[in-house]
């Protein structure tokens, strides 16, 4: 099946941080894919803006290399050159006064050209950047700004940043990006929940035993050590990505699939989250496995108490989810790279097949990576004449197989979200009040372990995390699903 591509309006997209790692690995190769797909047209422009001096030719060379390394496996050389002809570069200091006039003259004033600024520069220049855009007359009322994570370090800083952005831009112009929301499967989760009669009647405390959300990474933190050590897994992953996934799983059906209807429902979930007791949180830190460095070596801080792993159990206090545990875990240097949401349903109230038939539960597994897709585990009779023995089998729907190779090629989250920015659709972006509510829930948990001086539990690099994380769920008579690539 080939997906229908509708071109977006022509745009001028300025990428502040256009020479950075994110721009080279994700944003520019993603835009190139949209160009090849015909969604970004030739009358659009991308302007890299960063601190370093560089001319247009050097910038295009840099992007050519980035596409070769991170772009689609089959890139036609002429398509690359056509794409590069849409690119420009301006040296701008986001905090200072240099380069702004050049940037202004690089932008088109014609009507019908969408103007967007992607803030991919790290947290410290954000405030100045917003200010400068207004000051130099670049930010008219129709422009959009895209703000990368981290959005604040705690509630106070997130609130201050929201206030600062609000001085220059209306909330309808601000796109706080969480690339997890751009994943095909995450959007499909909403399609499955609200586009079928099958699931929603069962999607509550009466039928769901518990929910697990796992984001497991094999990489460590080397290269990002100084940032990560001040952040940790709670701030870097739970407050944003896992929280967003939790919201989409737990929210009530919005009245419409529109930005405020969806975000209102997500906000209600965050606000209904109970505080978490310290004994329901396990923090871990990876140790060296001989071949690879330990966390403390990676961040060059021999006394670090920052967690590279966290598992916790939380509850949502509302009618739908009362007393249903949500188990969340995420970590670095784990055995496999795998992200999954698993909705584990209750057992049938009575087994007509007797105790020998075993215990069976339907599990809806929503895999975010690798092999995005969904699997519904159902119980059937084991084939053959051996009597009535039951067996669990997966009803598998891996999107790449079901929808053909185009689905896989189109699957990157960043490019999808950038196209949404150009279309002016904020549904998959976090609203300011959502971000603040998420910090309001995580801040007391972080303050709690900092006040107590808790140290994270060591775990072997390449393992499934600290043993205590297994105990967290096992003591409830449940177990984590296996982390499997
Ligand atoms: P990076 O350090 O590789 O690049 C930073 C870019 O910002 C460079 O182009 C630099 O020239 C520019 N810059 C910095 N200060 C500037 C200033 N004052 N004026 C003009 N330009 C300035 O960082 P990165 O990894 O590309 O990350 C960019 C943002 O994206 C960060 O907020 C980061 O948290 C976020 N992010 C990155 C990743 C990733 O995989 N790299 C993933 C998620 C989010």
TrEMBL record:
Q: Name one Pfam family in it.
A: G6PD_N
Where along this sequence does the record place binding of substrate?
A: 179, 183, 217, 236, 332
Protein species of origin: Salipiger marinus
Q: In which pathway does it act?
A: Carbohydrate degradation; pentose phosphate pathway; D-ribulose 5-phosphate from D-glucose 6-phosphate (oxidative stage): step 1/3
Lineage at the top is: Bacteria, Pseudomonadati, Pseudomonadota, Alphaproteobacteria, Rhodobacterales
Q: Please report the stretch or stretches of sequence annotated as the Glucose-6-phosphate dehydrogenase NAD-binding domain.
A: 14-188
State any single GO MF term.
NADP binding
Can you say what this protein is called? Glucose-6-phosphate 1-dehydrogenase
Which keywords has UniProt assigned to this entry?
A: Carbohydrate metabolism, Glucose metabolism, NADP, Oxidoreductase
Q: Which PROSITE patterns match?
A: G6P_DEHYDROGENASE
Which Gene3D superfamilies did the record assign?
Answer: Dihydrodipicolinate Reductase, domain 2, NAD(P)-binding Rossmann-like Domain
């Amino acid at each position: 099946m080939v997906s229908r591509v509708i071109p977006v309006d022509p745009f001028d997209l300025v990428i502040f941080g256009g020479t950075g790692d994110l721009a080279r690995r994700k944003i520019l190769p993603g835009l190139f894919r949209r160009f090849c797909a015909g969604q970004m047209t030739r009358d659009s422009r991308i302007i890299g803006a960063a601190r370093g001096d560089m001319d247009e030719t050097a910038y295009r060379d840099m992007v050519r290399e980035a596409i070769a390394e991170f772009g689609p496996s089959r890139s036609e050389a002429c398509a690359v050159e056509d794409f590069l002809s849409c690119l420009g570069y301006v040296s701008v200091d986001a905090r200072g006064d240099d380069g702004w006039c050049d940037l202004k003259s690089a932008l088109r004033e014609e009507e019908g050209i969408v103007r967007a600024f992607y803030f991919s520069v790290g947290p410290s220049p954000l405030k100045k950047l917003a200010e400068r855009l207004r000051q130099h007359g670049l930010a008219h009322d129709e422009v959009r700004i895209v703000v990368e994570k981290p959005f604040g370090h705690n509630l106070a800083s997130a609130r201050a940043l929201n206030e600062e952005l609000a001085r220059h831009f209306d909330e309808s112009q601000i796109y706080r990006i969480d690339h997890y929301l751009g994943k095909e499967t995450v959007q499909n989760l909403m399609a499955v929940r609200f586009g079928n009669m099958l699931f929603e009647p069962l999607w509550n405390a009466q039928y769901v035993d518990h929910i697990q959300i796992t984001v497991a990474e094999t990489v460590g933190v080397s290269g990002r050590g100084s940032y990560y050590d001040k952040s940790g897994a709670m701030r870097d992953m739970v407050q944003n990505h896992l929280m967003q996934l939790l919201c989409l799983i737990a929210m009530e059906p919005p009245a419409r699939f529109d930005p405020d209807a969806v975000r209102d429902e997500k906000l209600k979930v965050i606000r209904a989250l109970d505080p978490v007791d310290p004994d329901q949180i396990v923090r871990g830190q990876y140790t060296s496995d001989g071949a690879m460095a330990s966390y403390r070596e990676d961040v060059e801080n021999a006394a670090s108490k920052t967690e590279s792993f966290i598992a916790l159990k939380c509850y949502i206090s509302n009618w739908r989810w009362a007393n249903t545990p949500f188990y969340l875990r995420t970590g670095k240097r784990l055995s496999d790279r795998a992200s999954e949401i698993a909705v584990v349903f209750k057992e049938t109230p009575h087994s007509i097949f007797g105790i020998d038939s075993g215990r069976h539960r339907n599990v809806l597994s929503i895999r975010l990576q690798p092999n995005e897709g969904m699997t519904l585990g159902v119980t059937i009779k084991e084939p053959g004449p051996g009597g009535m023995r039951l067996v669990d089998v997966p009803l598998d729907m891996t999107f790449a197989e079901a929808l053909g190779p185009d689905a896989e090629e189109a699957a990157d989250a960043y490019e999808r979200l950038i196209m949404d920015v150009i279309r002016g659709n904020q549904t998959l972006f976090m609203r300011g009040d959502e971000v603040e509510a998420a910090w309001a829930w995580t801040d007391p948990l972080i303050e709690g372990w900092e006040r107590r001086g808790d140290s994270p539990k060591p775990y072997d690099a390449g393992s499934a995390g600290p043993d205590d994380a297994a105990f967290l769920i096992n003591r409830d008579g449940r177990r984590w699903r296996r982390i499997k690539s």
